[in-house]
Structures are given as C-alpha cells and as structure tokens.
Design goal:
Helix Hairpins; 3 domains; Four Helix Bundle (Hemerythrin (Met), subunit A); two-stranded antiparallel ribbon; 17 helices; mainly alpha
Length: about 325
C-alpha cells in the first residue's frame, strides 16, 4: 500500500511519473472544461429539458471522479514532508487552499443530488473552474503574480476608490439640484462616478449642466491613467516573474552543464524543472542552446611549474583544446 501511495503521489502531486502525470492532468482539465460547458448550457431551460438525463449522468460521473481525486490526494498527502503525520498531516492538507477548492467543487453537486435544487447551488458548481489552478501553469503564474503584486494592486485600487468618492461628491454638489433622482446624494452619484472614472461610460446617467460636464471631462481624463494602473502592474509583474523563472531555469542549466555534457538524468531533471516553472518546451530548448554556446565553464588544472591550482574560463566547445594548451 505504501508503494501504491508513493506512486499515486508522484502522479498526482510531484509528476515524477511524467507520462501518467500529464495524462492525469489532461483528463481532469478536459473534465473540468466539459463541466463548465454543461453548467452553462443547463442554465438555458430548453437545453436543460432536452438533455436533462444526460446532464444528470454526466454530473454523477464528474462527482465520482472529483470525489475520488479529493480522497486520493488526502490519502497520499502524507508523502509530503509538510504533512507527514498520518492524522494531523492530512487534516493540515485538507485545510490548504487547493484542498478547500476541491471540496467546494464537490459539495454543491452533493446537495443537488440529495434534492436541494437551489439556483445558487447550480451556480456554485462553477467553482470547479478554480480547480484549473492546480493543473494549468498559466493559472499558477497568474496566482503567483497576484500574490507578489497584491500590495501594489491594493494601493492602486485604494487610490481609485478615493477618486471615485471625490468624483461622486463633486457631481453631487454640481448636479444634485438639477437631477435629484440621479445625483441627489453621494451614494446615488457613486454609480456615475465609478463607470466614468473607469472609462466604461454606459451613458445611462449623464450630467446636463456646464460645470457637471467639465467635471465629467476631468474625471474621464484622470480615469484613463488611474484605471489602467492595476492592469499595468499585473503586466509588469508577469514580465518580471517570467524573466525570474527563465533566469532560474538558466541557472539550473548552467549547473547541469558544469561537466560539459547532459546525460539522460540531467535532461529528465531539467525537463521536470522546466515544467514546474511553466516554461514552454521551445523556450527551454532555446535557453539550453544559448547556455551551450555562451556559458563559460570554469576548469581547474594543476600547474606543473609552481604547483598551484590554475582556474581557466573557456567556452564549453573549446574545453578540450584549452586544457591541451595549458598542459603544453
């Protein structure tokens, strides 16, 4: 049983069994996408009536698969040193964010099959979409960037909220008497201030006075820069994180190239690291070629004259020739 548990842990969590891990991820991702399609389609009454039986069968099948996955992950979690205790370790794992998402992806379907046919339970099944963060490297990258840039993004949002309140107060003072139904209070004016400052501009509520329109122009111009701040922060964070991961991968390549060659174990290790870092196969190959062509490798030889160690930096392809020259 311990051997089976270790094998399942490699497939589900570490992906040391790369082929089975990829197949498992592909199957679960496909199942999640199909679930999302079915949930969206079933919200249309005519489609739900026509395919109701098929939808129920598919829901039961998905529930069995997701429940089995949840239980297996809890069972194999003690293979991780962070959850090594048989009982406390599993409880600790079940309280992790990803385990909670897995549980929340199951519970709405359980309640629906038990007869609690509530609209909110049907909608909550879309939580399964968040399960993609476990299988998709892109989603993992997004979450990593969001965590790293959380403080900066919150600061930008805080500034945006302040400007919305200021804009709502200003338009209330200017347009409150002219349009009391739309701008008669600051809470009423918040809708216009929000859609204007974020440059959405639905046009359902507009100022009619000259000063109100001047304020509106000022808010729109200001909003172009302020509303774009979170997007710019995320874009910058993506670029920084991708570059950081590429540098890490390049460092791993250089470490494996210290002896001048890559054996099958080195290639397997690099491929695993590349997958974990979310670097594409093409980028990985290009970085490997760059490291082979540009990375200087340090060799240490023994000087026959003075008896001291001599460090020589040279390109890998000229390694043998450089050693021969020093020896001569």
């Amino acid at each position: 049983m311990q051997t089976v548990r270790q094998w399942l842990y490699q497939v589900l969590e570490t992906h040391d069994n790369e082929r089975m891990g990829r197949l498992m991820n592909a199957f679960l991702m496909l199942l999640i996408f199909l679930n999302i399609i079915v949930i969206i389609a079933s919200s249309e009454a005519q489609i739900d009536q026509r395919f109701h039986h098929a939808f129920v069968v598919f829901e039961i099948f998905s529930l069995i698969i997701f429940t089995l996955e949840y239980l297996l992950r809890a069972w194999v979690s003690i293979e991780n040193t962070a959850f090594s205790h048989p009982i406390k370790g599993r409880i600790k794992y079940l309280l992790t964010p990803m385990a909670l998402i897995d549980l929340l992806a199951i519970l709405p379907s359980v309640f629906l099959l038990l007869g609690a046919d509530l609209l909110i339970l049907r909608a909550l099944r879309l939580i399964r979409l968040f399960k993609l963060t476990r299988y998709s490297r892109s989603m993992d990258l997004l979450l990593t960037v969001a965590r790293q840039e959380a403080d900066t993004i919150l600061s930008a949002i805080f500034i945006l909220i302040i400007l919305i309140i200021i804009a709502a107060t200003g338009i209330f003072m200017i347009e409150g008497d002219a349009q009391p139904a739309e701008f008669g209070s600051i809470p009423r004016a918040l809708w216009w201030a929000t859609v204007t400052l974020t440059t959405v501009g639905y046009g359902d509520v507009v100022p009619i006075t000259t000063m109100g329109r001047i304020l509106g122009i000022f808010i729109v111009i200001t909003g172009i820069g302020i509303a774009a701040l979170p997007a710019g922060i995320l874009a910058s964070g993506f670029t920084t994180e991708i570059n950081r991961r590429r540098e890490r991968y390049k460092a791993f390549i250089v470490g494996h190239l210290q002896n001048g060659i890559l054996n099958s174990a080195d290639k397997e290790s690099l491929n695993k690291i590349r997958t974990e870092l979310g670097i594409s196969r093409n980028d990985g190959a290009l970085m490997l070629n760059e490291a082979r062509n540009e990375q200087k490798i340090s060799s240490k030889v023994f000087c026959p004259h003075c008896g001291n160690d001599v460090h020589i930096h040279h390109y890998r392809e000229n390694k043998i020739q450089a050693k021969e020259k020093v020896t001569k």
